[in-house]
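user: can you give me the structure for this one chain? tokens are fine.
assistant: on it. calling the predictor now.
[tool input]
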Amino acid sequence: MTTTKFQLEPLTCPSCIKKIETKLGKMDGVEESKVMFNSSKVKATYNEENVSKEQIKETIEKLGYPVIN
């Protein structure tokens, strides 16, 4: 398992958390995801054999949340 963090542009509403966590939770290989509203960070624990960091980043961005780094 690998854990990574993404910094997002500032989140504007608490419902953003549920949207991101739900989508990442449905991805094959993502074990856990946590979104921190106040810091606009996403922490994801995943299996590199099933999903890549880039795929997780792309999924977040497709939901409309730009990843800064």
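assistant: here you go. The chain is about 30% helix and 30% strand. The beta strands are 2-7, 30-36, 41-46.
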